[in-house]
Each structure stands twice: as C-alpha cells, then as structure tokens.
Amino acid sequence: MQAIVDHLLAWYAVPENGLLSVALIAFISATLLPMGSAPAVFGFVKLNPDQFWLTVCVATLANTLGGLTSFWLGLGAKKALADRRSTRYLTWLERFGPKMLLLAWLPVVGDPLCAVAGWLKLPFWPSAVYMTIGKFIRYVSFTGALLWIPDAWWMKFAAPFMTG
C-alpha cells in the first residue's frame, strides 16, 4: 500500500500531471457535484512550492469555468421551465446582482448560487468577473494559510493514516 501511495505522490508532484489534476478537480468541484478542490490545490503547492501562483491561477480558472457551467445550466433551466417562482432569495439575488457571485466559493451555497445567477439571466461578463475574483481570493487565502502550518503538524496529523 505504501508503494502505491508513494507512486501516486510522485506522479502528482510532477507539474504536468499535478496541474491537470488540480484543474479537473477544481472544475468538477465548482459544478453541483459535491467535491472540494482546496485539498488538491494545497497538496500540489505543498509538493511544488515554486508553483504557488501558477497553481492558484489554474485552479481559479478551472473553478470559474465550472461555476460558469452551472451558470449556463441555470440559464438553460430557465428557458426549459417557463414558470418562474419569485421567492425572497431570488429577489435578494436580483437586487444585488452579479456582485453576489463573490460568494460563489462558499461551500453548499456557492454552486447553486451560480446556477441561480444563470436562471435569473444576470449579465454574463460581470458574473464571470465577480465569480473569478471570489474564487481567486479563496485559493490564495486558504492555500496561503495552510502553508503557514508547520510540516511537523501535518506529519502528526497524517500519521494515523500512514500506518499499515
């Protein structure tokens, strides 16, 4: 088992392989599928600290494209379903507009927020810009904060999972 883990870590540490993995995970995690991309981004940056900004930019781009996919799905759903039910939340989102997509990075509510933005036919480019800004700030702050935690703590944390 340890050999498999070592092989996967070695493969993941190669920038060509790891960045593709980060991009795929970031894209999928921004759709309505429940998945987190922060551990993949942090893991890759931990193995390749000189790739911090490149990794953050790749993850931000892929995560934004995933969010825009949800946006387009919401837009398509709007066209498919002529009935529009106005709720307090939809009214709130309409009032704040694309700026609400700064919160698209939030767990649980962020992905549906992108779909609802499409449903409401919010302007595409402002929505894309605000979504990108929010996701970029998330990756920089979370990954940067995790990198401040000493390696000794991570080794202590991972020790129960490494015995076998």
Structural features, described:
The chain has helices at 2-13, 15-29, 38-47, 52-80, 88-96, 110-119, 124-147, 151-162. It has 164 residues and is an all-alpha fold. The radius of gyration is 18 Å and the shape is elongated. The mean pLDDT is 85.
Q: What percentage of residues falls in helices of 4 or more residues?
A: over 70%
DSSP helical segment count = 8
Given helix and strand content, the structural type is: mainly alpha
Count of DSSP strands = 0
Largest sheet: none
Task: Give the percentage of residues in beta strands.
Answer: under 5%
What Rg is obtained from the alpha carbons, in whole angstroms?
18 Å
Could you say which overall geometry the principal axes of the C-alpha atoms support?
A: elongated
Order of SSEs: HHHHHHHH
> Averaged pLDDT, please?
85
**Uncertain parts:** none
Straight-line N-to-C gap: 8 Å
